[in-house]
Q: What sequence folds into this?
């Protein structure tokens, strides 16, 4: 049995600021499927200070202890996510049994500054469009919001969702659940788990989003009571670049797991709504 965590509610997160993508979710916080261990401000052995040759790829070595050793990397354009100020974000714990080891849905949000997002969209051959990101059959939605709860703008292109951020601005991750079931959300930023700061794996514990509720993830968790806020910043200053390497900077990932037992998703409700009371409209057949 897995343990899960709940985070305090955010008063700014309400339907007036975050119009629901599916159903209006109650203003709410989070729960999390948990085991000990949170994200350290930095980890691994001594960090190399010698500048890498221009154009050389960035990477992170692994010490005999298994820790990651960040190495100096050349500067890159665009945004990464830096280790921000400490933010109060208390959690509690609850049991959660996954219905399957395979995620019910997986979602990725790519982010960049305005110039980088526009360049990425042009690379994919598209222009700006309203950004709505649904998970699975559309029963859950994900978004990045600013510190006031306003959904960040972006582009939808060739299956990619490109969110536009601003250097230095704080952001939060929001997941809305429009079903009567609970889901577990394992989230990552720049390839790092938002709970322990290590390279992300869907098999890690995640946050629980309750039925018709909203999950808010404020930053990299540092304890049961606080997180380090997500802030857009230079790639070289990102938490990833300073710990495990900058290869996966610029993406927020979600592995969403259904809870063991029946779940009232939109697909299931659609089947129930379209149930036919007379599926066989033929005539009686003689006995054999």
A:
């Amino acid at each position: 049995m897995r343990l899960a965590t709940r985070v305090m509610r955010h008063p700014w997160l309400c339907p007036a600021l975050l119009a629901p993508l599916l159903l209006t979710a109650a203003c709410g916080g989070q729960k999390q499927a948990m085991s000990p261990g949170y994200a350290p401000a930095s980890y691994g052995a001594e960090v190399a200070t010698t500048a890498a040759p221009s154009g050389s790829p960035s990477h992170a070595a692994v010490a005999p202890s298994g820790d990651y050793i960040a190495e100096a990397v050349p500067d890159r354009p665009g945004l990464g996510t830096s280790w921000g100020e400490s933010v109060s974000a208390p959690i509690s714990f609850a049991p959660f049994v996954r219905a399957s080891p395979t995620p019910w849905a997986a979602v990725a949000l790519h982010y960049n500054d305005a110039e980088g997002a526009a360049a990425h969209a042009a690379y994919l051959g598209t222009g700006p469009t309203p950004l709505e990101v649904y998970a699975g059959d559309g029963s859950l939605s994900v978004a990045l919001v600013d510190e006031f709860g306003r959904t960040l703008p972006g582009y939808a292109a060739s299956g990619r969702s490109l969110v536009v951020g601003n250097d230095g601005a704080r952001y939060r991750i929001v997941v809305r659940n429009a079903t009567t079931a609970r889901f577990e959300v394992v989230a990552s930023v720049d390839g790092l788990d938002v709970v322990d700061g290590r390279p992300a794996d869907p098999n890690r514990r995640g946050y629980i989003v309750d039925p018709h509720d909203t999950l808010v993830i404020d930053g990299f968790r540092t304890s049961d009571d606080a997180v380090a806020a997500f802030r857009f910043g230079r790639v070289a200053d990102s938490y990833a670049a300073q710990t495990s390497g900058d290869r996966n900077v610029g993406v927020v990932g979600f592995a969403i797991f259904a809870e063991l037992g029946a779940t009232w998703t939109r697909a299931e409700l659609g089947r129930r709504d379209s149930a036919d009371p007379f599926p066989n409209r033929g005539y009686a057949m003689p006995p054999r």
